[in-house]
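As a warm-up, study this chain.
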Amino acid sequence: MARHLGLGDIQDLVAAPGGRLNQNLVATTPRGRYFLKGSRYPDIETIRKEHQVIAYVGTHNIPIVPPLAARSGETVTRAGNRWWVAYPWMEGAPLDTGGVGPTAARTIGRTLGALHRVLAQVPVSVSASLPRRPLLNATEARMRDLEAVISRNPNLSAFDRHVLASIAYRRTLISRDGSSHEAFAMLPTQALHGDFHLGNLLIHRSTLTADVSINAILDWELTCCGPRIWEVARSADLILDLAADLKNDAPCLREYLSGYLQYAPLTSQEAFQLAPFYRASRVQSLWVIEEHYRQGQAPTDDIAIDDLGALDWWYRNGEAVGQLVGELVRSTKVIEGLAT
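Now compare it with the structure written out below.
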């Protein structure tokens, strides 16, 4: 790969921190340091679509790290049994959830709003080929398949029992909320990052203030088309400690949403559907459970264990989140005339 891209001789090669599903490495050569991503996807076109979106947003003042290209212009290299992509190394570090106060939350919200504003203009030739997310269908069949797999095991593990309880609870929620899904079909859709959270943001934190600046938005492999309210809610869920924040009158969530809405205003219908749509997407998201039974044990098992409690929290508190979104949609002034 280094020869193909002209990176120079590898002097040091170590596993990169973080990441669950791809093979990520950090390489050092006489020319510098590089992040090497060994994709989990066998189809090169999936990776090329990701790179098309990165290239587009990079021309619109969005902070990205472009993949390195060979002389042919190709950004994907076959090595071993994976497709690999190389990126120049960038300094910065992700925050943890506890490090996000109201000021940082506003900056992150503004960044997502500016990003969505640009992604809404991605050419149809690119966006039409992106996968649709989230998928709110075929859930019952997938749950039955999981139950069938578990039933073949005579000695249920703690994970198996957790999954069976999770499936039973999800069926209850699907039955309760089934009638609301017709309204979801009317929601506008656009290109999305697909995985906008702290682990995919390279952040510089000021030593003098509580503010942050975002050096780069990383990891576009889940870029997709879908209702942007899903990514707004999902990112808030992953970036903020919503349970603690809501108990304190939601200062971080208010700033995050206000920052977002300044750049990418929501309609009243989108605001009304934000919490119900995100709850439905969580109910019908089974991929971390399916990953466990595909592999026998998966790097995402901890997410599957935590998912049930988080899902329950959204069903108990989603209405409060939705009311706050509606309030801010009515009161936030949009910043006009932006380049992004």
